Amino acid sequence: MTLRADLAVIADHVAPGSRVLDIGCGDGALMLALREKQCDVRGIEIDGASVERCVAQGLSVVQGDADRDLRDYPDKGFDYAVLSQTLQTAVRPDRMLDELLRVGTRAFVSFPNFAHWRTRAALMFGGRMPVTRSIPVSWYETQNIHHVTISDFRDLAREKAATIERDWYFASRGPIGRTGANARAEFAVFELSR
Amino acid sequence: MIVSVQGPIVSTASQTLVLPHALPLDGGGELARVEIAYETYGTLDADRSNAILLCHALTGDQHVASPHPVTGKPGWWQRMVGPGKPIDTDRFHVICANVIGSCMGSTGPASDAGDGNPHAMRFPVITIRDMVRAHVGLLDTLGIARLHAVVGGSMGGMQALSLAANWPERAERVLVIASTSRHSAQNIGFHELGRQAIMADPRWQGGDYYGGEAPENGLAVARMAAHITYLSEEALTAKFGRNLQDRPDGSKGAKTFGFDADFQVESYLRYQGSGFSRRFDANSYLYITRAMDYFDLAEEHGGRLADAFAGTTARFCLVSFDSDWLYPTAESRHVVHALNAAGAAVSFVELSAPHGHDSFLLDVPALDRVVEGFLG
């Protein structure tokens, strides 16, 4: 099974043997990849069926709500906190970012970029909330309650005094450079510290 | 020795050993000459690393996968424990011991106090930790320093948590199903109802009924009340609804304008109550429910549950059921939060099952997958 592109980036850049908390770990694909690198990986996932699949594979995953349950984790208990494709579903993404950088020395965050040209075009010419490959669900049933753009996220990181250590951008064909990424990238991955 | 249970005793794989030392008790004092009745399944590895301790619930026993000696019914976790099953006895050496205070062979109120008479109410009030201390004594005697896992549902889960907190080096994995770290007011309330029903039975005689008639009616009422808490409204409605019970002469059920068991649910509960009275000792029921009521793992560790697990290297897995209102999901989450705060490796899942608290004993395939996966 090949890892989703953002997860592959994260898996490649987590140091072997690290302690990692994967928030919104889904079916545990990233956790399994990190376990191969001798990492001590824990997960949080809201969907019970996904949690069951993770536990059945011997992964340590807690069924819970990241908006509520992160606060139980001790400060800097992990080398990395990972939030993949979940920031835009948080009740308060700003507080979520604070929590990531509290429980982890570093944080990886990936999210779909709402300023991608396809999204802009759909809104400008279609006049309706975009449904694209990276935002595949209609506005009324999407879990994405806080759409965010790459520029928005950079602003938030600055406001939160978080340092962007590394960043990666992906278009439909694969990785792209930073130039014009806010319009060209379908999704982005950031590595942060504070 | 079992003094009070009635009916034929058939032979089982059960063994009994006497702990080589007196057992110190949380309530002060100690219990001398403690007998532990236990069963084992599967072969112990040469390096003694594949042992799993199964802890049973309030009215359970060591007959986890062998016929019950009184009722002849299959073991209480037969569906989970055996060759090729989620707790695979082809791979693991499974040990299940009757808790002290019980009546299935381990020392309890019905046991001889050493003066030729049963302890009865002279038996000391014990705690969950005392039960676990006896289990640890058993493991010491069997030469098992470290368990592959300790596993328990309901009161068995309390024992698993207690072992993890008080003897953290003894288990690599801790699996806690439909349980709690402390008894709630509602839990204590239901237990008090049961105890009062037993003690209100004139045959109880201050606990000195051995050799005579046991307080079966009181114990049956206690069981009926408790049994309701083990089910869910949904399960009771699905099973019985308001259906009427056919009369003993075979005629169709009808309201009798009396107090017979008109409804099927009444008939079912009476059957459960009387069946239980025949296999369980009323005084044991008093002592074990008391031990559960006293259970508060945080209190034992300075009031902060996370401190109970400080420094643990064990992996934990907690499972709750969405229809369990006896130990609801919030109780498991409370433990999970403490384990997270302690930095422990913990898994937790709330499984969907309609049967209420008893779901852990029943056919829930998702539970099988979680148990098998967690045990590795």
TrEMBL record, chain A:
Report the domain of life of the source organism. Bacteria
Q: SUPFAM superfamilies recorded for this chain?
A: S-adenosyl-L-methionine-dependent methyltransferases
Name of the protein: Methionine biosynthesis protein MetW
Q: Which gene encodes it?
A: metW
